[in-house]
Design brief:
This protein has 37 helices and 18 strands. With 839 residues, it is α/β, with parallel strands linked by helices. The longest helix is centred in the first third of the chain and has 35 residues.
Length: 839
Amino acid sequence: MYQRRQWQGERHWRWRARLGRSFLALLLVFLACARSRNPQAQLEQTQQVFVRGDLTRAHNQADSAWRYYAGRDTLWAWKFRVLDAKILAWRGMYGEVLPVLGSEFPASLKNSDLDFRRRELIGVAYVGMHRFAEAERILVDVERDCRTSGSEVTGEVLTALGSLPLERGEYQRAQEIFEESLRLARQRSNHFSEAVALLKLSNTALLQEHFDEAIERSKSAYDAAETIGAKLIMEGASGNRGWAYYKTGDSERALDLFLEANRRAKELGDWFDEVKWLTNAGYAYLDAGKFDAAEDYYRQSLDLAHKIDSKEDILNALVALAFVTVQTGQLDLAKQYSEQAIALAHADGNRVDELYPMLAKGQVAVRVGDFTPAEQVFREISTDPKVDPSLQWEAQHELAGVYERERRFDDAENIYRAALTSFESARSSLQHEEFQLPFMANATQLYDDYIHFLLERGRTVEALQTAEYSRAQTLAEGLGILQKSSSRTTAAVNPQHIAQHAGGTILFYWLGSKQSCLWAVTQDQVRLFPLPPASEIDAAVQSYRKALQGPRDVLQTANSDGTKLFDILVAPAKQAIARNSRVVIVPDGSLNGLNFETLLVSEPKLHYWIEDVTVINASSLRLLAASHAATRTTAGKLLLIGDAVAPNPEYGALSQAALEMSNIEKHFTPAGQQVFTRAQATAPAYLDSSPEQFAYIHFVAHGTASRLSPLDSAVILSKASSEEDSFKLYARDIIQHPLHAELVTISTCYGAGARAYTGEGLVGLSWAFLRAGAHNVIGALWEVSDASTPRLMDQLYDELKKGQSPEAALRTAKLSLLHSDGVFRKPFYWAPFQLYTGS
């Protein structure tokens, strides 16, 4: 409490200091105005300051100018008044708009464009203050007058008018109005109004949960604003993209955009947007389990919302605080926040806004054991005709949990299935793979709860099929293996038949928040083994990965994480795994970044698991079932690309690249290979080579793995043109060129990717080549040694030439390094490479 008061005191003195500086700035502006006496130039200059987004400076200039011209020139005084009111409205300071415009408007200016703008801004202020009836009366009247006179202000008035149906949840009507506003702006070449209309359309798409459209509209708004330097619109568009990414499950990418938008809003004095980005950043922290940070951001948001008296933002902050206080167990506070938010939304007649705090209210009831009112609330939400899809499956998920606690198991199962159907329906509406990839993160807990519900009923295989349904959906749909559908049905996979097809044992993992699972599948049986929670496994994986890439030999030091992970992840199923057999790993979560070959087996003496089995990685049982048997033939052409000319100092020359390429070339006849090296090793060379004709494709190059945007991961080649990024072969371009290759080898650092998406696994270059249709892909989990890799790849192709399958050939090549006498025996040199099987 003392620290809080001390901070308030410091803020008071800083505020007084800022007031002094502001007064001096106003005085200087006033004196400058008096000297210039050129109101048109002054107005245009202030408008430019506003368009560039410096709202504080623009307000100071406009305020000073209208006060100066008041009593001197009525027309110019009102022009500056209207501009000042517009700036205040953009800052969310609606209560200050009315006093600026409140004095008697000259009769000589009635029904002029200036009058239309004045009346429009009064309507905007009323919308912001939630005085909707007054807002509608004014905005409808001014729209009619604008159309009657053919005013150029019509588009701006329509943008204001569209805010009314938006507030009422009438999104289709709002969209129609904003689209007309956009058409008029483009017709009149008003670039600022065009950017504003596009931004409003992105808002509308977000509220409709049309996330592909929202991202496209936000990008268009950003581009339009950038051409005129409209930083305010650029900031809003960035934040809107962040919310779209958040709602599609990409909280990490969203948080970066929210924080950047919040920083810009602060710089521009845009309190209206700042309060939004504070709330949204809090949601990203909430999803990451950082409850203290989330609550802090929500409280900042609520304080600022009260400061500008924005009822919408007060409501949003209260809802957010209700959710976070439920999570932290502050149930009295959560109940208080939810009831306040419900009352505010109800008073505005906005049913959509009312449903969200109702969810928090139901969650409080569950936690105190009041299941009957909780059931009523969740049912009311999930069946409301205005419920958002994401809120619907959340409410259904909560309702299923209530039924489970009440031991109404049939009802619980029906609602679990309804929730999963709601989720899959929402996912099916996404058109772009980039947005589909992270979407499964939205249903992680839903799937986890339903899987454990099935396991507690003894339905082991059905639980496995449900877990399988969540895996690699985007990859399978892209390859045509899975039909994209708006309705969910349990995947009709037969795990034992797939194990027989794979010719070995399948270890299928599910990492859960409370308990994890391993299904060991052979052609004869499916066995379930309970595992520790994801947090325990994640910690061991992270520690062991660090050790594998460190200077010490994990085998010589008998690394405890290596043995612990084997004992947790593999040992329970060891009876199902014969020596020198094939084992297919279908990983989950952090296990996507673990090379199981490196796990340490204690008996009969400490050794790596690679010495016992051949390990293959698969994204899902579906993809494994679609994979074909290895051809085991030397037939087929090679496409070899690498030893590129360094495009810039960041990507230096690879001293052993030429050696690696020559080691590979010697295994193919001159007629059976196409080689692009040095200046010819470019991205267009690959794309234009008809890559579908090659059985083997090999890259010897640097690589990048983009964590925030995995489809921007790239193979680094020679510059193809003067364009800045012409040396990059992007993952997003790779997937556009279908392949039939038996094996694609990406001999680059981090070729497997840097980020694992829920359900999809690591997404990067390896994923891109699988998506393009490659049957098998070799990619690296970490940095690749330029010293050891030529030797490894030489051995790989030697074994392929002998007729070994890609997975067997890779294992033999790795063992050749492991059993050597030098430093290359350490996993750092042979273990980054993993083989991923495709369709």
